[in-house]
Amino acid sequence: MNGLTIYEFDALAAAGADFSGIDGVHMVPANVFSWLEGQCLRAADVGDAVWLRWAQRRGRRVIQVTSFVGVIRSPDGYQIEVLPKVGKAIGGGAVEARQLLIEMLCCLHGFRHVLTDSAKLSAVRMPLLEIFISEFLRTVEHIVKRGLRSDYRQRQDNLFALRGKLMMSPHLRQNLFRADRFFTEHDEFSMDRPENRLLHAALRRVLLLTGTQANQQLARELDFVFADIPPSTQTRIDFQQVRLDRGMGHYADALAWTRLILNEESPLTGSGRHSAPSLLFPMEAVFEAYVAKHLPRQLTPPLILKTQARSHHLVRHREQNWFRLKPDLLVRNLDRDLLVLDTKWKLLDGLKANGTDKYCLSQSDFYQLQAYGLSYLDGTGDVVLIYPRTGAFADPLPVFDFPKTSGIRLWVLPFCLKERRLKVPGSLGLRSIFVGGNCNEIQTEEFNAVPI
């Protein structure tokens, strides 16, 4: 299958352009580049999430991918696999970056059915789209082994024997001179039910998408099992009629993949408007879900981690609350909020401590955390910004103090993606919240304050 693998914020240019010596610029066929240009214009017109944007290299126009990862597939089948930029920073190349992404996606709502071990093993030899297809086929094969479920469906037909209820009006119209026929309405026990029709439609779609021999062979074998079941032609209606009642629980994972394949449902391309599947996921959401999944293990009992808190607003105007404050994570005990945390998918540099670079931090993030601290912690306590841990940002930064709000301290902490742990300093306030935070050992020293 034609395609290439790139990382977040890499650029794409039409084949033939001279960008030799420039890191992060990749050539794609001219027709693919034209299609990407159309996607840029479309996103600007309809206000979609900006997963592509115009950029320049050596004075020439290129298209840059942003902080969305996954698969971009052009209508002619050309496939662009976008991997997390942290793959460059932590080493290991595309294979390790792909395995890490699969593990992180498993924490994202809607992807928790991915069998992590088998998918990570497939990542050594398959691009992401083929891994998704392989996982879908695995779930359908599981259903086939347990047996396709049948159900009663109402049917009207002109039969040679009376069955069910005689429909008098159509019977008189069609059988006035046919005494051997009965137009009836009856229940038929059949495998032709919405769940099976959707699976068959997804199998047909996968046969067009997959490029590996193993996936093609398994998809054909499974498609043969569904030969007597018509594929869904009205997927939206069939999804509305899905019933995962008693005896249908083993259908859940396969139908989740089916929804993704037929509707192209991802956090970005959920509307199904694209002419080819582009399964892209915002890394901000993926990183937040990954941290939220693993951070509770580090909390001191009985503390709990709450996601997407929304109990406070920034201002009150004419007896109405405006601008809801929604931190990513909130540590609570039984009766009050203890710690506000926000995840940021950005690579910091712990050596750039000068007044110009400021570790590559964003001033707007500090304003945001200050507002969270004032509202959720009543102006006293710790707030935390969490970034991915890399070689350039391996240890917590010295604590930041807000001069005008002396009761709030802001910490910038690295989250180790491999060890799935937040690395925390030995601050007295944080020590009472976290059991331990180093990827290898617990950090115990204090850090000097850095005024903002």
| Global structural class | alpha+beta
Round the Cα radius of gyration to an integer and report it.
28 Å
| 3D shape | globular
Given the structure, what is the number of helices? Answer: 13
Q: Give the termini separation.
A: 52 Å
Oligomeric nature of the chains: single chain
Tally the structural domains. Answer: 4
Average pLDDT value? 81
How many E strands?
21
Strand content: 15-25%
For the sheet with most strands, the description reads: 8 strands, mixed
Q: Could you name the ranges where pLDDT drops below 50 across 5 or more consecutive residues?
A: 265-277, 440-449
Proportion of helical residues: 25-40%
What does this structure look like?
32% of the residues lie in helices and 24% in strands. The two termini are 52 Å apart. Strands 12, 15, 16, 17, 18, 19, 20 and 21 form an eight-stranded mixed β-sheet that branches. It folds into four domains: 108 residues, no CATH class; 108 residues, no CATH class; 40 residues, no CATH class; 153 residues, no CATH class. With 452 residues, it is α+β, with helices and mostly antiparallel strands.
